[in-house]
Amino acid sequence: MDISGKRMYELLEKMNFVRLSTFEGEKKGAEIIANEIKALGIEPTIEGFKAPRYEIKKAKLEVTAPVYKEYEVTGYGFAGNAAADGIEAEFKYLEALDSIDLVDVKGKIIFMAQGLRPEAFKTLIEAGVVGFVSAHGTFRETKDTLDLDERMLRPQHIEYGKLPGVCISMTDALELVSSKPEKVKLTLAQEEGEGDSQNVIAEIKGTEKPDEVIIYTAHYDSVVFSPGMFDNASGSATILELLRYYKANPPKRTVRFLWTGSEERGLLGSKAYVAAHEEELKNIVLCINVDMTGPLLGRDEARVTGEEAVCNALTYFYKEIGYPMNVKQDIYSSDAIPFADKGIPGINFMRVAAMGTAQIHSRYDTIKTVTAESMERTAKFIAAFSDRVINSVFFPIEKKMPENMVEKVDKYLRKKK
Length: 417
Fold this sequence. Notes:
Blueprint: H1 5-14, H2 24-39, E1 45-65, E2 69-71, E3 74-75, E4 87-93, E5 109-111, H3 118-127, E6 131-136, H4 155-158, E7 165-169, H5 170-178, E8 183-204, E9 209-219, H6 229-248, E10 253-260, H7 268-276, E11 284-290, E12 298-305, H8 308-321, E13 326-329, H9 337-340, E14 346-353, H10 372-390, H11 403-412
Parallel strand pairs: 4-5, 5-6, 6-7, 9-10, 9-11, 11-14, 12-13
Antiparallel strand pairs: 1-2, 1-8, 3-7, 4-8, 8-10, 12-14
C-alpha cells in the first residue's frame, strides 16, 4: 500500500507555525494544503466563510486595597468592552455555585478556580457579578514554562449576556486569594468582529457509484501559541495522504476531502460546509474524521457516531488483520458532529497519546511529539478499512442515526440544555 509517513511528516514540517482562526497563519496553512493538492494534478476548491474574531487591546488585573499589586493576565475574547476603562469592585473567591456561595456576590469581581461552563456563566450573571477571574496551569509552572491561555466566551455563553473576565496563572491565583484582597480593578478592552476563514476541498469521482460520497474531514487550524502538530496537522497530513492513495487507486464511490478552518473556534469550518452544501448532503453516506494521530507512545482509537453495527464491523476488521485499537460508539468533539447532526454517520479516528507525551492546546504541541512511523501506521489502517467500505458491492453502513447518538449530538450542540 503506497502510504508514506515520510510525505506526511514533510507536510507537518511545512505547517510548523501557529494557524489561528482568521489570522494569516491559518490562511497560509490553507494555501500549503491547496498547493499540495495541485501537485497531485487535482484542482482544489477554497471556500471562504466568516468567523468571529477578537483582538485584545488591553487586559489588566490590579489589587487596589489594602495593598496595590498588579498581575499578568490575558483577557477573555468576546467579553465586550464594559471594562475598557476599568471596573473597581470588592473581591470574592467563589468556591462553588450553590445558593449559599452566591449570597453576597452582587456587584463584586469574583475568582473561580473551576471551569466556566455556560450554565455557570449564566449563574454569575443572574447573581449580579460585575467581573470574573479564572486560572490556568498548575502551581508548578513558572512564567517561563506557561503560556497564559487566551480564552473566549462562546456563543452559548453570550446568549446569557456578557461579563468582562481575565485569566491568571494558577501560581498567581494562589497568591491572589491568600493575600485576601478587599478591592480589585479589572480592565479589558478589545476589538470584536468577524474575519475570513476558509475550507479546502478536493474530490475524486467514483468509477461505479459516483453519487454515493464518503467525505473525509480534518481541521488544519491551531490555537494561540501552538503550532498544532498533533492537533491537528497530523490529521490534515493523514487525509492528504489518503487523497494521494485514491488518486493512484480510483475508488468505486466518490471520495471528498475537506480540510476545515476554525475548528478550534467551535467546529466553524464543518458547520459552514454543511450550511453551504445542504442539497449535496443527501449523497454523503459517511463522514470519516481524523483528528490527532502520530504519537509514538499511545493507542489508536475510533469513535463511531452511528449504528452499533459499525462498531462491530470495525472491531471485526481490526481483529481480522491484527491491529490493536479501541472502538466505541460515541460522539467526538470534532468535525464529524455537524454531519451527524444531519443524519450522516461518522467514524472518528485518532491516536490517544500516552500520558506525558503529546500535549494539545499549548506551546508543547510540537513536531517532536509525532513520528512519521506512527502516522503511516494509522493511515494504512484507515485506508485498508476505507477500501472495504468504499469499494463494497453494496454500501454496508446504513445512513441512520440511532436515538442515543441523536441525544448526544443534540446535547453537544446545545439543542437541549
